[in-house]
Each structure stands twice: as C-alpha cells, then as structure tokens.
Specification:
Elements: H1 2-26, E1 28-34, H2 38-51, E2 56-62, H3 64-72, E3 79-81, H4 85-93, E4 103-108, E5 110-115, E6 136-139, H5 145-156, H6 160-163, E7 167-170, H7 173-181, E8 187-191, H8 192-197, E9 202-207, E10 214-220, H9 227-238, H10 240-248
Parallel strand pairs: 1-2, 1-3, 6-7, 6-8
Antiparallel strand pairs: 3-10, 4-10, 5-8, 5-9
Length: about 250
C-alpha cells in the first residue's frame, strides 16, 4: 500500500511540473499601451499581478498609431490603451474592438516645454517664429497623438506651415522628451505628464489650448486569447487604486 501511495505522489508531482509552465503561459496578458502611459502602467502592473496571482502582464509601449498598426498586422495583444480616440476609433471601425467596450479612463494636457537652460529664451508660442529658435521637437503627426494634437493647435493659430521647416519629428512623445532632456532641440511639444517626469531637465513654458482635451480610451481586443483577464485589467485601471496611480503621474480623471 505504501508503495502505491509513493507512486501516486510521484505521479502527481510530475504532473505539476509538466503543467506549471503551461499554466503560466496561459495567464500571460499582453497590454499594448501608448508611450505616454509608460510610467503609470508600469506602476499599475505589480498591483494587478498581486491581485491576480499567476498572471504575467507583458507591457508593449509605443506610439498609439504604431500600436494600432501592430494590431492590424496580427500582433498578439489583449488590451489596447490609446493616447488618442482616433486610433481606438480605427480599431472599432476595422473590427478589432467592440465599440460598447471602449471607455475613456484618463485625460492629459499638451505643453510647450524647453530644456532647463532654455538657450533660445522661449517664453510663448509667438517666440517660436523668431530666429533664436532653430529646432522644435514634435511627434510625427501621422502616428503620434501628441504630434497630432500639436499640429491641430498650431494650425488653428496659423503657425504650423511657418514653423514646419524648424521641426524635428519624433517617433513617439517620449523621443521628443529625450530631445528636450538632452538639449538637442530649442523647445518641443509633449504631454504635461512627460514634462513632469523629466524633472529639472525640462521646464514647462505654456499649456497649449486644444479644441478637445487629450483623452485616453482603453478596451479589450476581440481576438484576445484571455478576454476575461483582459477585462479584469481594464477594470483595475479604472478602479480607485488604478486612478490614484494615474493621478500620481499627473493624469486627470475624465
């Protein structure tokens, strides 16, 4: 009898060893999120994993347009969080997301920022037309929401065409922030949360008036292989704990 029990225990142990990696893989959750959410979602990740033992959240940060194109090309993802409703709407229009499941969970502000020593002496948008300003950092408007917001604001003030020859385009808002932090541009357009993140390396000159606030929609993707857990992540982002972490990084509640 004792020999039989030992055999059963050994068999069970082997099954656990064999199934453990499969279980861990089954609970992997891929979140494709806008680059400007990098710090906030990195803060949120450990809290969600602690509340859902066995789940491994894999964050995929990039410009919202680039993330959408990844999804369009079949890249695996369970959750999409965009820095601009435009890319979420494309995801809805092309059948990757159910419109009823899209929620706006945060807002942000667009600012004109300069390197800490402000060598060009920029104090307002009007100063960008002067000879002292030779380079302006801006996200590529076609794919970077922060660049799209900046282009719309400058176009409304009839400045975009005039300033375009001075523009240095970034592949994400974080790349523009890097330009500013290293003093490689005279000024640039980034989100307020990014400028705050840079600390003493970057100074905010002005908040840019926008026709609509910078809004962040989030949704579970239809082809998610773990839709229940994906929805749990979306719910956690909107929870009091998630909102507190977002606010700590400078985001506003919608």
């Amino acid at each position: 009898m004792k020999r039989v029990l030992n055999s059963l225990i050994l068999s069970c142990a082997c099954m656990v060893l064999v199934l453990a990696p499969l279980s861990a893989h089954a609970e992997e959750l891929i979140v494709s999120a806008a680059a400007s959410l990098t710090d906030a979602f990195t803060d949120i990740e450990p809290g969600f994993e602690k509340a859902n033992p066995g789940v491994d959240v894999v964050m995929n940060f990039a410009a919202s347009g680039a993330l959408y194109r990844q999804i369009e090309q079949g890249a695996p993802a369970d959750v999409f969080a965009s820095a601009n409703p435009k890319w979420m709407q494309k995801a809805v229009d092309n059948g990757f997301v159910d419109k009823a499941n899209v929620v706006t969970f945060a807002q942000n502000a667009l600012v004109l920022a300069v390197p800490a020593d402000n060598p060009a002496g920029v104090k307002s948008l009007d100063d960008l037309k002067g000879d002292a300003v030779k380079s302006i950092g801006i996200g590529t408007p076609e794919t970077v929401p922060a660049g799209q917001y900046a282009k719309s604001a400058l176009t409304a003030q009839k400045l975009y065409t005039t300033l375009e020859p001075k523009m240095i385009f970034g592949e994400s808002v974080r790349q523009v922030l890097d330009y500013l932090s290293r003093g490689e541009v005279d000024c640039g357009f980034v989100y307020k949360t990014d400028a705050v993140k840079a600390g003493d390396a970057v100074a905010i000159v002005a908040e840019i008036p926008l026709e609509k606030p910078v809004s962040y929609p989030i949704a579970v993707l239809k082809n998610s292989t773990n839709s229940k857990m994906a929805q749990a992540f979306v719910d956690y982002v909107q929870s009091e704990e998630g909102m507190t972490l977002l606010e700590a990084r400078g985001f506003k509640r919608p």
